[in-house]
Amino acid sequence: MRKTGALQVEVEMQIPFFDVDMMEIAWHGHYVKYLEVARCALLDRLDHNYLQMRDSGYGWPVIDLQIRYIRPLLFQQRVRVRADLVEWEHRLKLNYLISDAATGERLTRASTVQVAVDLASREMQLASPKVFIDAVERALACAR
């Protein structure tokens, strides 16, 4: 089992027709989109989403993505996508769990790693910017 994060969000969604093949199974590449929906919800919870990241002078590209496909996602299936914040001081690491909304069955697990890049110099940062750390700490304080 993957590490549970200091902060979590969960979003529910239904697998749409345009994401599936003729066997009504979601194409594996669309899973990244589902993770992004949960990641954006988590960043909103931090009150430091992509627009605020950009406005603070930093981009946050994904530098690592890992996905373990356990069971297929099916057309019209309702799923929950949970994102867990597990690292934030030197990089942004999130763990994800996609599960069936009705049964709770684990369908997919994943993780992403993002790093801060100074938008002006295009240099990767070896530590997360203070503005981001402060946002995480505020959100953690509110969650307690």
Automatic annotation (TrEMBL):
Q: What is its EC number?
A: 3.1.2.-
Signal sequence bounds: none
Kindly state which keywords UniProt assigns to this record, in alphabetical order.
Answer: Hydrolase
Say which domain of life the source belongs to.
Bacteria
Which GO molecular function, any one, fits this protein according to its record? Answer: hydrolase activity
EC class (word): hydrolase
Q: Which PANTHER family match?
A: 4-HYDROXYBENZOYL-COA THIOESTERASE FAMILY MEMBER, NOVEL THIOESTERASE SUPERFAMILY DOMAIN AND SAPOSIN A-TYPE DOMAIN CONTAINING PROTEIN (0610012H03RIK)
Protein name in UniProt: Acyl-CoA thioesterase
Q: Where are the bilayer-spanning segments? A: none
Q: Which residues form a coiled coil?
A: none
A Pfam match: 4HBT_2
The organism is Pseudomonas benzopyrenica
The UniProt family comment states: Belongs to the 4-hydroxybenzoyl-CoA thioesterase family.
